[in-house]
Specification:
Elements: H1 14-37, H2 41-52, E1 57-61, H3 64-78, E2 83-85, H4 88-91, E3 104-108, H5 118-126, E4 131-135, H6 141-145, E5 148-151, H7 167-187, H8 191-197, H9 201-206, H10 210-213, E6 222-224, H11 229-239, E7 243-247, E8 253-258, H12 259-264, H13 275-278, E9 280-281, E10 285-286, H14 292-302, E11 306-310, E12 316-321, H15 322-327
Parallel strand pairs: 1-2, 1-3, 3-4, 4-5, 6-7, 10-11
Antiparallel strand pairs: 7-8, 8-9, 11-12
Helix pairs in contact: 1-7, 2-7, 3-7
C-alpha cells in the first residue's frame, strides 16, 4: 500500500501558518473595500425603508447566513430599529405568524438559492412587505424577488478549499452594520437612547448619568451662608461626605466647606464664625446629565473626591462622591 500524505494535514512551519492567517485578513479586507465601492442607491433605498418601517425589521437566513442575520437583527435592535430574527426553516412550520403586515424582511443568502427562504419570500410578496435581498447573485431567486437588492462582492471564499463561508459572511456582517449605523444616524439616535437599551454590564455603566448615581434629598449636606460653623460641623458629621454645600436664601449654591477649609481656618473662634467666612466660593459643580465616565475623569484630573450636582439655576440637586463611581465600576 502506498504511504500517501494528506496535503491538508502535513506538517507546516510557523511562518506558513502565519501566512495563512494573514491571507484571510488581506482577502477579506479587499472584499470589504469592494463592497464599499459598489454601494449605490439601493443602499439608500434600504436605509430609508428601514427608518420608515412602522413594524419591525425581520432578518432571516439559513446556515452561516442565519448566524449573521441574528447578529444584524441584534445590532439593529440595540440601535433603535425594532428587529427580530426568524429562522426560515421554523417559519415554514408556523413562525411565519411572527411576521406581520407593516414589517419589512431582510433575507440573506450568498448564492440567492437557499430553498429554505422560499416560503419567507413568498409570504413577503403575498402581503406586499418590502423585501430587501442580500446576495451575490442578482439573477438568483432571491435577487429576482427582492424589492431592494444589496449585492455582495462576487469574490471567492478564502482558504485552500474556498468552500466555507468566510469572505461572504464578513461582507454581509459589515453590510448589516452599515445599515444599522446609517439608520440610527438618520433617526438621530443619541447616546441616551443607546443607554436605555444597554442598562447592564460595562456599557451600561459607562452610559450612566450623574443623576443616576448621586445622593439626593436629605442625604445632601447643606447649610446657609449665615449658619455658624458649629452648625456646619454637625451637618458635615451627620452626612459623612467630608463637606457641606453653602446656599443663599434662594437656595443657590454659593460655596463649599471641606475638611481642608476647616484646617485652613482652624482657630479658637472657628465654631462662632459664619459659613460665608470659611467657605470656598464658586465651587466646581456638575450638571445632572453629565456621563458618569466623564465625571470620574474630571474628578481625577481635578484631584477632587466629591462634587455637588446643580440645576440650571445653580440649586443643589445632589452630591456625588468618587467612591460612588468606583463602586459601580465606572472606568
Amino acid at each position: 500500500m502506498l504511504n500517501t500524505v494528506d496535503p491538508l494535514h502535513q506538517e507546516r512551519d510557523d511562518s506558513s501558518i502565519l501566512a495563512s492567517g494573514r491571507a484571510v485578513f488581506v482577502a477579506e479586507s479587499k472584499a470589504l473595500t469592494q463592497q464599499a465601492e459598489q454601494m449605490n442607491e439601493a443602499f439608500v433605498h434600504a436605509v430609508r425603508a428601514i427608518v420608515a418601517c412602522k413594524g419591525r425589521v425581520i432578518v432571516t437566513g439559513m446556515g452561516k447566513s442565519g448566524h449573521i442575520a441574528r447578529k444584524i437583527a441584534a445590532t439593529m435592535a440595540s440601535t433603535g430599529t425594532p428587529a427580530h430574527f426568524v429562522h426560515p426553516g421554523e417559519a415554514s412550520h408556523g413562525d411565519l405568524g411572527m411576521v406581520m403586515q407593516g414589517d419589512i424582511v431582510i433575507a440573506i443568502s450568498s448564492s440567492g438559492e437557499s430553498k429554505e427562504l422560499g416560503d419567507m419570500i413568498a409570504y413577503a410578496k403575498r402581503f406586499a412587505m418590502t423585501l430587501i435581498g442580500i446576495t451575490r447573485k442578482e439573477s438568483s431567486s432571491l435577487g429576482s424577488a427582492a424589492d431592494i437588492l444589496l449585492r455582495l462582492p462576487d469574490v471567492p471564499e478564502v482558504g485552500a478549499l474556498g468552500l466555507a463561508p468566510t469572505t461572504s459572511t464578513t461582507a454581509t456582517l459589515a453590510l448589516g452594520d452599515a445599515l444599522a449605523v446609517a439608520a440610527l444616524e438618520m433617526k438621530g439616535f443619541t447616546a441616551e437612547d443607546f443607554g436605555n437599551f444597554h442598562p447592564g454590564g460595562k456599557l451600561g455603566q459607562a452610559l450612566l448619568r450623574v443623576q443616576d448615581i448621586m445622593h439626593s434629598g436629605d442625604d445632601v449636606p447643606l447649610a446657609k451662608l449665615t449658619d455658624t460653623m458649629a452648625h456646619v460641623l454637625v451637618v458635615m458629621t451627620e452626612k459623612r461626605f467630608g463637606c457641606a454645600g453653602i446656599v443663599d436664601e434662594s437656595g443657590t449654591l454659593q460655596g463649599i466647606i471641606t475638611d481642608g477649609d476647616l484646617r485652613r481656618h482652624m482657630s479658637d473662634g472657628l465654631t462662632q464664625k459664619q459659613a460665608a467666612e470659611v467657605m470656598t466660593k464658586s465651587p466646581m459643580v456638575f450638571a445632572p446629565r453629565l456621563l458618569a465616565a466623564e465625571a470620574l475623569k474630571i474628578l481625577n484630573e481635578k484631584n477632587r473626591t466629591q462634587v455637588f450636582v446643580v440645576d440650571e439655576r445653580g440649586a443643589p440637586l445632589g452630591i456625588l462622591h468618587i467612591h460612588d463611581l468606583l463602586k459601580i465600576g465606572v472606568a
